[in-house]
UniProtKB/TrEMBL annotation:
PROSITE patterns: HTH_MARR_2 (PS50995). Signal peptide: none annotated. It comes from the Bacteria. The keyword Ribosomal protein does not apply. Residues 13-145 form the HTH marR-type domain. Keywords: DNA-binding, Transcription, Transcription regulation. InterPro entries: HTH_MarR-typ, MarR/SlyA-like, WH-like_DNA-bd_sf, WH_DNA-bd_sf. This is HTH marR-type domain-containing protein. The keyword Transcription applies. GO terms for biological process: response to stress. GO terms for molecular function: DNA binding; DNA-binding transcription factor activity.
Length: 157
């Protein structure tokens, strides 16, 4: 649809929603293929990444962070725990709550998954300069942060 000069040749190519949708669809396909063996696929990866650093979050905090329904998160955690990638343990501050901790096997799996997703990202951004990729990711992160923060604030109301 575009020419060798990378300028849009069809009106849709300058439409934000359409171009974002095309990129998101392509990335979802490639990312799913990259981590298809991981329980939960890309969502399993996001869980491992979210619990890999710092204080283990509660299931509720993790569901809110990832924007997942609590019942969906429980199902994903069951799969990850069965694979010995995470462990649920009582929260010392609230014995009714459970904290989610990554295991040593989970850390190794997360490292391998990150490598596979880095390759998927390189496939999606092929043809772009390193500085263009950095700029794209920085802008995308700012947009995502703003909307993730807005969604969390709206959910708290």
């Amino acid at each position: 649809m575009s020419n060798a000069g990378n300028s849009p040749t069809h009106p849709l190519e300058s439409d934000f929603g359409w171009t974002l949708g095309v990129v998101a669809k392509a990335y979802r396909r490639i990312a799913h293929d990259a981590v298809r063996r991981l329980p939960g696929g890309p969502r399993g990866y996001h869980i491992l990444a979210a619990v890999s650093d710092g204080q283990p979050p509660s299931q509720l905090a993790l569901a809110q962070l990832l924007g997942l329904d609590k019942s969906v998160l429980v199902h994903l955690l069951d799969q990850l725990e069965e694979a010995k990638l995470v462990a649920r343990r009582p929260d010392p501050a609230d014995r009714r709550a459970r904290q989610i901790a990554i295991t040593a096997k989970g850390r190794r799996t997360l490292t391998r998954s990150r490598e596979m997703l880095d390759a998927a990202e390189a496939e999606i951004t092929a043809g772009l300069s390193a500085s263009d990729v950095r700029a794209f990711k920085a802008v995308l992160a700012r947009i995502a942060h703003r909307h993730h923060t807005d969604a969390a604030t709206a959910a708290d109301c």
